[in-house]
């Protein structure tokens, strides 16, 4: 069997906060319990928001917490050709299609359907499902528009993807308390024709994460409950691409006093801010319910 391998995979679009610290420390504790290792991955495909100082800040914060990681550290921005190859494999099987619709066009189409009283299904995040406009375009039209250089995403053809499976996708879930495993059915159809390649880069979070987990030999994924529903889509991509599937555990989120989850976009206090006002790494460990390991 492969050595248990976990990963902590932050995005360098801001400074880490206590929610990140909890996830990183939980990953470290589980890796130690399993006799495995914990890798660090920098998920920096969002080139418009990534800043070198944020990468440096992540490394400084994790070092301050007492966490050490094997080298080299995988950075997604260095592996775009790998993700493009996975995209091409899906395209060769007609499981994805180029979508030329802008957000405004999609919103207008959905508004028109709503005005007619048509039911609009929504994905697990509450976003209306893409109505499938570009799935109905001919291959010749799509090719011509791509050759003209029209901006486009690549969407999963969900009906075709589900038909391509020899059996329904499943997800293995594990308990960090006793290691017990259970297998549950995945339901990727609720995501509709999800974007798996963005306009600006040859990948998406969904595509790159399943490719990276396979390349790095990740056996256990420990991440927040806000990503639990996305695991359905990841299970589908793993099946379509013939990739190994880790076992998953989705932990509760650290929340602010108002009940909202901590988030960079909300300006949640960062670990650097805590450090600046005299909070120690030991204080963070204890406050999050972890024993000091160093």
What can you tell me about this protein's structure?
With 294 residues, this protein is an alpha/beta fold. It has two domains: 1-76 and 255-294, HUPs (Rossmann fold), CATH 3.40.50.620; 79-218 and 225-250, Rossmann fold (3-Layer(aba) Sandwich). Helices cover 36% and strands 15% of the residues. The chain has ten helices and ten strands. The protein has helices spanning 18-34, 52-64, 80-92, 103-115, 139-147, 158-163, 205-215, 230-241, 271-276, 281-287, and strands at 5-8, 37-42, 74-75, 96-99, 153-156, 170-174, 181-185, 195-197, 220-224, 247-251. The strands form three sheets. Strands 7-6-10-9 form a four-stranded mixed sheet. A three-stranded parallel sheet has the order 1-2-3. A three-stranded antiparallel sheet has the order 4-5-8. β1 (5-8), α1 (18-34) and β2 form a beta-alpha-beta unit. α7 crosses α8 (230-241). The longest helix has 17 residues, at 18-34. The two termini are 29 Å apart. The model has no long low-confidence stretch (mean pLDDT 95). Belongs to the class-I aminoacyl-tRNA synthetase family. GO terms for molecular function: ligase activity. Keywords: Aminoacyl-tRNA synthetase, ATP-binding, Ligase, Metal-binding, Nucleotide-binding, Protein biosynthesis, Zinc.
């Amino acid at each position: 069997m492969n050595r248990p391998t976990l990963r902590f995979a932050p995005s360098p679009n801001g400074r880490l906060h206590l929610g990140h610290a909890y996830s990183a420390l939980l990953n470290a504790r589980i890796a130690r319990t399993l006799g495995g290792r914990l890798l660090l991955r920098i998920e920096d495909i969002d080139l418009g928001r990534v800043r070198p100082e944020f990468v440096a800040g992540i490394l400084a914060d994790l070092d301050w917490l007492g966490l050490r990681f094997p080298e080299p550290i995988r950075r997604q921005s260095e592996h775009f050709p790998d993700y493009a190859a996975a995209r091409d494999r899906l395209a060769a099987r007609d499981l994805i299609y180029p979508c030329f619709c802008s957000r405004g066009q999609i919103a207008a189409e959905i508004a028109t359907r709503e005005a007619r009283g048509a039911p609009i299904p929504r994905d697990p995040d509450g976003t209306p499902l893409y109505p499938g406009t570009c799935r109905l375009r001919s291959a010749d039209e799509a090719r011509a528009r791509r050759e003209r250089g029209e901006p486009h995403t690549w969407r999963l053809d969900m009906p075709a993807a589900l038909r391509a499976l020899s059996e329904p996708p499943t997800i293995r879930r594990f308990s960090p308390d006793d290691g017990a495993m259970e297998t549950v059915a995945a339901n990727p159809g609720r995501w509709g024709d999800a974007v798996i390649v963005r306009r600006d880069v040859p990948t998406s979070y969904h595509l790159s994460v399943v490719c990276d987990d396979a390349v790095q030999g990740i056996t256990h994924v420990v991440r927040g409950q806000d990503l639990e529903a996305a695991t359905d889509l990841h299970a589908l991509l793993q099946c379509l691409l013939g990739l190994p599937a880790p076992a998953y555990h989705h932990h509760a989120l650290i929340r602010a006093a108002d009940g909202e989850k901590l988030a960079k976009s909300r300006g949640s206090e960062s670990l650097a801010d805590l450090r600046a006002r005299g909070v120690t790494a030991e204080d963070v460990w204890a406050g999050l319910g972890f024993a000091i390991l160093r």
